Amino acid sequence: MRIGRLERETKETKILVQLDLDGEGKSEIDTGIGFFDHMLTLFAFHGNFDLIVKCDGDLEVDTHHTIEDLGIALGNCLKEALGDKRGITRYGAFTIPMDEALVTTDLDISGRPFLVYNVNLTCERIGTFETEMAEEFFRAFAFNSLITLHINERYGTNNHHIIEAVFKSLARALKEAVKIDELNKDKIVSSKGVL
């Protein structure tokens, strides 16, 4: 079973995250930020991951610590669940149209963390979710899971649609990348022999 679990407590957040890469798309999400809960639910569903996220954060300050710390935690859970990465497909790419918006996510489970984030958001908040925190979440996720992550909005005008397309395209690309290649299930997909 490919499961990662992390409990993390700081003066700003108390977090529990569990990620099962071979799940059924079930989720139990409670971050205290309604829109973010919705996005993580979509991430689990479209990735076919089972995901538990519980967070008690200092939302009286703002959403920064909650969202960034959950990116850190989810990234670490992905890294743990992948183990030595033996048998995985490694690469994933997916484009999601969400009404007028179109977003593509490409990723490499490379062991070399990097984020390219070309997303143009034009409002400060969606509900209580601070839109500038989307980039911080994906950066924390990429750098703590050790993946190379490229997120590119091709076009769009509705910020809800754009961010939703980002989460869905990430989920679908990741689902493809973590899939076990049955023909190479004992192989690490790198000429170096390690990812």
From TrEMBL:
**Which InterPro entries does the record match to this protein?**
IGPD_sf (IPR038494), ImidazoleglycerolP_deHydtase (IPR000807), ImidazoleglycerP_deHydtase_CS (IPR020565), Ribosomal_Su5_D2-typ_SF (IPR020568)
Q: Which reaction does it catalyse?
A: D-erythro-1-(imidazol-4-yl)glycerol 3-phosphate = 3-(imidazol-4-yl)-2-oxopropyl phosphate + H2O
Reading the lineage from the top rank, the first entry is: Bacteria
Which EC number(s) does the record attach to this protein?
4.2.1.19
Database matches in Gene3D superfamilies: Imidazole glycerol phosphate dehydratase, domain 1
* Localisation: Cytoplasm
Molecular function terms in GO for this entry? imidazoleglycerol-phosphate dehydratase activity
Q: What GO biological process terms does the UniProt entry carry, in alphabetical order?
A: L-histidine biosynthetic process
Membership in a protein family:
Belongs to the imidazoleglycerol-phosphate dehydratase family.
Protein name, please?
Imidazoleglycerol-phosphate dehydratase
Native organism is Thomasclavelia cocleata
Gene (name only): hisB
